[in-house]
């Protein structure tokens, strides 16, 4: 794992890491507060050997020093002996056994120094001090009685001072260890979660599992996803620019064979495919294209609700031959945009969408219009895959941080199995902050910066296309299925009724 991977892991799971660090710190603090405090006092005794016969030569001094060091090492072992500890217990009136007291005493001799250092530990500072001093005094007396003729003397040179703070536990040492242990556990949990979490989060993930490039990145927008959404009133600048970027990228997918019929689908339901299809049709018409949006989701149609249109007559009646195309097509508030709703829900959606009549209908419409088909999701049913075989290609909508890699792989497999062409993917509902990083130079989604623009000027919008978007339906005479749209498209729904009322 590189430092960049570690930083991404930290940024993605920072809440988990913070929680684990706090838990580790809290456990360390609890451990510190629940431990019995121990105090340690230190006293010292000097072992000295006099020069023999008053000789003060360097050789004699060295010999005396060696004797003192040897004796100090021998006598230090006596500090924890039963003879010494029993006298200390009696002197200090301790309620401890000899072995218990011996475990609280340590005697050390520094290298090249004839000094015995006694460390005594107790539950109180005063008791630790008393034990340390008592051990030195008892040891001195015991040595003088048992070994009086060695010529080596032991003297108490440093009495123990009263400890000012506990020697155990030490919060300054335990708390950082708890914090570090919590972070380590947090990173391990984050790594395990990262390995198990296969949700799509970036354009790199989409391209890896879909096998096609990302054509658009749409920010999460509550207004765009609302039931009473109005595409014409969409005021969010990021959303408008993202939809125009999707429109521009679609035109550059294959400059030699511009896709005229595009299936908009997703791996599962609820990923925003209908919203993307309706929005894409709107921005295509806004640029001057003649567009027909077909609600080919014959199981859960939603386009009629998005555009507030009548859904009693639509695609199913046209395919069944009970209605003509000119009667089923409905105009919208956007000039150049027509909608073919789903119509009545049939018992055999897959057979209708995979029929030769559907193929011929798409071919006929693409002669004069750009066709956008809102198709069902790929995994539950085969409708979208069948449609993609009749269209120029399919665009797969992926919900950021929701769609899983295995779902996207299976969706791509279903399209490839019928010979469908995957034009690309759309990463939908991306966090707005991540979109901001795209706009200002972060290329993690593959687009880089938008560049410099003033106010809210249209990105990539040419004056000619802006002017062409003002064309009205009455000014066009495009042929569809042998009949003109001029004056022959039925008006449906509340919006159409209001237009007819204003015309009167």
From TrEMBL:
It is found in: Cell membrane. This is non-specific protein-tyrosine kinase. Keywords: ATP-binding, Cell membrane, Kinase, Membrane, Nucleotide-binding, Transferase, Transmembrane, Transmembrane helix, Tyrosine-protein kinase. One of its GO terms (molecular function) is non-membrane spanning protein tyrosine kinase activity. It is a multi-pass membrane protein. Its EC number is 2.7.10.2. Residues 460-504 are annotated as: Disordered. Belongs to the CpsD/CapB family. The keyword Nucleotide-binding applies. PANTHER family: FERRIC ENTEROBACTIN TRANSPORT PROTEIN FEPE, TYROSINE-PROTEIN KINASE. InterPro entries: Bact_polysacc_biosynth/exp (IPR050445), LPS_length_determ_N (IPR003856), P-loop_NTPase (IPR027417), Wzc-like_C (IPR005702), YlxH/NBP35 (IPR033756). It catalyses: L-tyrosyl-[protein] + ATP = O-phospho-L-tyrosyl-[protein] + ADP + H(+). It is an enzyme of class 2 (transferase). Residues 2-91 form the Polysaccharide chain length determinant N-terminal domain. One of its GO terms (cellular component) is plasma membrane. Residues 495-504 have a biased composition (Basic residues). It comes from Flexivirga aerilata. The keyword Transmembrane helix applies.
């Amino acid at each position: 794992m590189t430092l960049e991977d570690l930083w991404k892991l930290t940024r993605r799971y920072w809440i988990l890491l913070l929680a684990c660090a706090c838990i580790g710190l809290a456990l360390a603090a609890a451990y510190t507060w629940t431990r019995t405090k121990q105090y340690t006092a230190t006293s010292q005794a000097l072992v000295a050997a006099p020069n023999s016969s008053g000789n003060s030569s360097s050789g004699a001094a060295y010999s005396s020093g060696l004797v003192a060091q040897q004796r100090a090492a021998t006598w230090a072992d006596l500090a924890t002996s039963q003879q010494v500890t029993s006298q200390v217990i009696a002197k200090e009136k301790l309620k401890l056994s000899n072995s218990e007291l011996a475990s609280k005493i340590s005697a050390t001799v520094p290298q090249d120094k004839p000094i015995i250092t006694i460390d005594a530990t107790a539950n109180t500072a005063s008791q630790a001090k008393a034990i340390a001093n008592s051990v030195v005094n008892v040891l001195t007396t015991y040595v003088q009685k048992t070994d009086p003729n060695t010529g080596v003397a032991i003297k108490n040179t440093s009495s123990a001072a009263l400890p000012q703070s506990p020697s155990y536990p030490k919060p300054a040492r335990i708390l950082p260890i708890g914090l570090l242990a919590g972070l380590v556990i947090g990173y391990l949990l984050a790594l395990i979660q990262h390995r198990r979490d296969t949700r799509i989060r970036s354009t790199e993930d989409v391209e890896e599992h879909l096998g096609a490039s990302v054509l658009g990145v749409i920010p999460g927008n509550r207004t765009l996803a609302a039931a009473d959404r109005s595409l014409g009133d969409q005021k969010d600048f990021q959303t408008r620019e993202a939809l125009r970027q999707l429109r521009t990228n679609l035109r550059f997918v294959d400059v030699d064979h511009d896709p005229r019929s595009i299936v908009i689908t997703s791996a599962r339901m609820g990923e925003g495919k209908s919203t993307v299809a309706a929005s894409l049709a709107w921005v295509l018409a806004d640029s001057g294209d003649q567009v027909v949006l077909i609600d080919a989701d014959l199981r859960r149609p939603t386009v009629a609700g998005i555009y507030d249109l009548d859904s009693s007559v639509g695609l199913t009646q046209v395919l069944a031959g009970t209605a003509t195309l000119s009667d089923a097509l409905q105009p919208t508030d956007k000039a150049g945009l027509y909608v073919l709703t789903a119509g009545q829900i049939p018992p055999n959606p897959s057979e209708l969408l995979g029929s030769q009549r559907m193929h011929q209908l798409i071919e006929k419409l693409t002669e004069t219009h750009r066709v956008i088909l809102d198709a069902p999701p790929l995994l539950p049913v085969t409708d979208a895959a069948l449609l993609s075989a009749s269209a120029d290609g399919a665009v797969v909508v992926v919900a950021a941080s929701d769609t899983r890699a295995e779902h996207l792989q299976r969706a791509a497999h279903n399209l490839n199995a019928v010979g469908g062409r995957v034009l690309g993917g759309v990463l939908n509902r991306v966090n707005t902050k991540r979109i901001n990083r795209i706009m200002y130079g972060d290329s993690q989604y593959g687009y880089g910066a938008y560049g410099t623009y003033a106010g809210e000027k249209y990105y990539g919008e040419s004056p000619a296309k802006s002017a062409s978007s003002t064309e009205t339906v009455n000014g066009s005479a495009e042929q569809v299925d042998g009949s003109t749209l001029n004056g022959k498209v039925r008006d449906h729904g509340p919006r159409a009724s209001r237009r007819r009322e204003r015309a009167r």
